[in-house]
Specification:
The protein has 114 residues and is an all-alpha fold. The protein has one domain. It has five helices and no strands. Helix 2 runs parallel beside helix 4. The radius of gyration is 15 Å and the shape is globular. The relative contact order is 0.16.
Length: 114
């Protein structure tokens, strides 16, 4: 898995692909227990993998910050009650936050205000 490239040559695409690979291959967490969470993470990572190739940073961040805000509102209003759906949406949300935070750490704090 280690690459001979200098770290300065890593891209967001490389990081997302590694997160996808980790989610698929990891044996740290119980695959059955984390099934829905992993599905949500993989869904978000794959969507972001497409969007990073076609969106500017501003549009990308606005889109995904809006998604996280919407998920937070749904959780707060108890619009999602199914436990499996909650786990999937949590994984989706957390994957987005992990990538947006890499783009600019301030976004993590902006999300806390939502």
């Amino acid at each position: 898995m280690l690459d001979n490239r200098k770290v300065m040559h890593f891209t967001i695409e490389d990081i997302i692909k590694r997160k996808i690979q980790f989610t698929i291959d990891n044996n740290i967490f119980d695959k059955i227990e984390y099934k829905e969470n992993d599905e949500g993470e993989l869904l978000a990572y794959n969507e972001m993998l497409v969007d990073i190739k076609i969106m500017s940073e501003d549009i990308f961040v606005r889109k995904y910050m809006g998604i996280v805000e919407n998920i937070g509102r749904q959780f707060e209003n108890e619009e999602i009650l199914d436990e499996k759906k909650i786990e999937k949406m949590s994984g989706y949300n957390n994957a987005i936050v992990s990538i947006v935070e890499l783009i600019n750490p301030i976004y993590k704090y902006d999300l806390a205000k939502i």
